[in-house]
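Help! Submission page says 'invalid entity' but I think these are all valid:
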Amino acid sequence: MAKKALEEIKVLEFGQFISSSYCCKLMGDLGADVIKIEVPPDGDSARRYGPFPQDIPHPEKSGLFLYLNINKRGITLNPQVPEGARIFRQLVKQADILVENWPAGSMVTWGLDYAHLTEINPRLIMASITPFGQSGPYADLKAHSLNVCHSAGVAKGIGSLGREPLTPPGSQSHFFGALNAAAATMVAFWEREKSGEGQYLDISEADCWAMLFNGVWYSRYLYGHEEVSRMGHRTNLPVYPWAVLRCKDGFISATAPEEAQWQRLVELMGNPEWAKDPRFENRVKRSQHADELDERIESWFASRGKAEIFAACQERNVPFSPIQDIREVVECPHLEERRYFVQIEHPEAGEITCPGPPYKLSETPWELRRRAPLLGEHNEEVYRGLLGYSPKDLAGWREEGII
Amino acid sequence: MNMGNPEKEMRKGKKGMPLEGLRVLDFGWVWAGPVVGQLLADMGAEVIKVESRKRLDFIRIFPPFAEGKPDPDGALFFHSLNRNKLSITLDLTQPKAAELVKRVVEICDVVIENFSPKALRNLGLDYPALSQVKPDLIMVSLSAAGQTGPWRDIMTYGPSLGALAGLDSLIGYPKERVLGWPMAYTDPASGLLAIFGIMAALYHRRRTGKGQYIDLAQWEATTALLPEFILDYTMNGRVAGTQGNRHRHMAPHGCFRCQGEDAWISIAIETEEEWKDFCKVLGNPPWCEEERFASRESRLHHQEELNRRIEEWTSSCTPQEAMKLLQGASIAAFPSNGIGDILKDSHFEERGAKVAVDHPKMKGEVLYGLPWKFSRTPGSIRRPAPLLGEHNRYVFCQLLGMSEEEVKSLEEEKVLY
């Protein structure tokens, strides 16, 4: 087995769906010991999300769950009843990190907020991931990933003017929140190594979008007096080409902001007469005649396929690339050579193929050590092995629906 | 919550910046690399940005500018991503400059870069070369497609990476052409993963004394965020198309026109209870009773008609009115904001989205704040973005002990340039 960067770090994950799961997956992937707590009887809502093989719903076969929960152990526990909360505190006592994503205030209701948990374990790092954070006027409002994107100005830049703004696909608010929480947690963990003290991290998905994604555009609004807007297949920046254009068998992402890149593209298209028009002499002027230029370039693209255009452009340092659909991504020879996709054997779902390492660390490589846990799969191992309870205790808890 | 003022209440014990004492060399340019250095600097690391007049960071020449006219020190986009950093200027094509980089690396813990894979290799400044002068160095390269594989040398921008990653193919109105996402989500998403990787590598270094190299392909980091679509293909052979605002299980789940200019409300309904409450807010119009909207499955199947009906209602109110009514019934609803809305919003204000910073080119410039709320050791914005080469003397004289004369002559030779 390879060396693990986060060996011996104990992580408790208590949440559902995506944000806490992806955050802790990143930790488990680098060797942290992640115990995922699911609330019985149904467990994580990602178990009901899918996609399912042959579209037949089954709590052990949800693709989203199977991907988000590799490299973790799984237990069931209901901390919303006093005995469950007591066991939860015992788990917290031996943990370094706790990540949760319940609606703001839930952990307080259960007596499991940071103020209480830090008394049991002053070294604990606790991260909460919520739509709007733990404070501020929106803290208690209800929101799904869709609403968070819209609230934080992400959607206003996607789609066509006059039509509804669009969200990025696949619950991206939760993934973006997870990435932020994972990075922040490790920063706090590093600090703990020096100070010996834990702390609480309040991660708001809307904050992450509004600041880390959209913050770079504040100055454009405040001092450039330009609002973000939706220009369909093109950018709203005064730059051309920066568009998605049609070709023979699909679409090309045509972004080339530098003048030399435009010149090389013109050359590639055989130095057509129209390109000499002074109306097209720089990227700003070109952006004012974008419809006309779309047509010019698309008529050259029309007889050529994505692969041909990609190869020809890259050969001349024109930074265009094909819009790959999901099949093309999964079958892409480049990713194959980098062994990006991995096959995971699962007792219920069979063999599944999903993304593997999102990066390659030279000393402590990403490693698939465990498939996603079945519901309550590691109850015995954790409650008996780690906390020292007896089979009788477990039987009693099972009866009462605590585990 | 017992949180009249949670930050005040919980901020006890040892203070200071979490990453104090960490030194980072930042070759980053445009967004993906610089955002890594920016977040590390916000949290207390000393981040030294390497740049050159010979080839300016693209965002030093990108409008808007502080005084209205192009000026590499007045580029506002640059200011936001490079606050808290120091700047040294080195023309890396000169052998002397490459030697100086190595001397700086010797006193750094981490190196960040997001050039194409051949760039630093050709300059003799890739990981094998730098780890010779600093054996426990941690270095991360955020390239488009990674350091290996047949497409490793491709040239891309953020949007073209979303294209390769499969992300763009999903963006557009349902059953219509691909529109793509003209913003570069790949940049901050990859940057965050890089920070996670760096911190994990630092932890490993503390235990073992060993550094390492992180090959981060922004394309791969982004494809990792699309599991439901990837698995629907690998499990069922289904190739997802443009998604619009749709969701696999929720209906209604969309964005609806309201009164006002470009005014919209997003609404997402998960449970049957919520659906009933939603109908009630609308005044239980007869169409709510129709069989085709009676169950979630059926609503998913008849989304277009459903959305048209909902829009008839939302068109009669402003987004704020609709939000108030719906949130009052515990329904997830939120207006679709622009940047201006965020900047005027009291919630984002309270969460610290805006921070005013004095820059030599602009007093009280508004930058975005720190997205993470740490209870005990929050980060901070301590200095504005650096002027080009502002810290040449600090780094080369104070940190490396070179003399003023040496630095002057390197400037004259345009090594420091």
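Support: the input was valid. A stray whitespace character was the problem, and the output above is from the cleaned input. Chain A touches chain B through 156 residues (CB under 8 Å).
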